[in-house]
Amino acid sequence: MIAVIDYKAGNLTSVVKTLGYLGAEMLVTQDPEVVRRAEKIVLPGVGHFRATALLEELGITEAVRESVAKGAWFLGVCVGLQWLYEGSTEAPETRGLGHFGGECERFPTVFGGEALKAPHVGWNSLEEIRGDSRLMRGIDEGEFVYYTHSWRAPLSADTAASTPYGGAFTGAVERENVMGVQFHPEKSASVGLRVLRNFIEL
To answer: Catalytic residue at 114?
Structure first.
């Protein structure tokens, strides 16, 4: 069973609809005990990083840590990926899970001597896909996915795929059973469906 965490942020309905289309058994929840029992966890999200403060208030942050430590699979989407890091300059007072080092920062206003628009909205390519990534299995470099965000996660050894915009940033992150995507798989046509199917089949 997949526990889909509801913290009143953004794209919950579209993620649930897409998981259902793929045949996933799931439960939308704010209950930390459901999260502790889940075999898989999905944290969707659109909007301000501050919204993730509710996860701490509900006791879900600790429940996620316990569940992941026991081997449950975790997938964060958009702000859900950013929450996996130590925090974000968008809301410095709100701490992330801290599973991955570093913090998310806003896109630069200028890159290569030219103004850079933020948010980064639209289709962009996945590059430097890690060969051992289970989440990115069957996806070729250069395939396109859909983004809408103004803050980005840093590149690291845990980056499973990068995307170029104002320099490369982490489009997907993966370490063992914890994964995240900055793009919206539920809006990314066949590539996004492949990513979600890979997660369901883990």
So the answer is: no
Annotation marks residue 104 as catalytic? no
pTM: 0.97
Which position among 90, 103, 174, 186 bears the catalytic label?
186
Q: Which of the following is catalytic: 57, 78, 93, 143?
A: 78
Q: If 0-12 CB within 10 Å is exposed, 13-18 middle and 19+ buried, where does residue 122 land? A: exposed
57 is catalytic: no
Number of domains the chain contains? 1
The values of phi and psi at residue 79, to 5°, are -60, -25
Domain extent, residue 31, equals 2-200
pLDDT digits (tens, 9 = 90+) for 17-38: 999 999 999 999 999 999 999 9
Contact 148, 121 (CB under 8 A): yes
Q: What is the CATH number of the domain that holds 114?
A: 3.40.50.880
Q: Is residue 74 within 8 Å of residue 43, measured between CB atoms?
A: yes
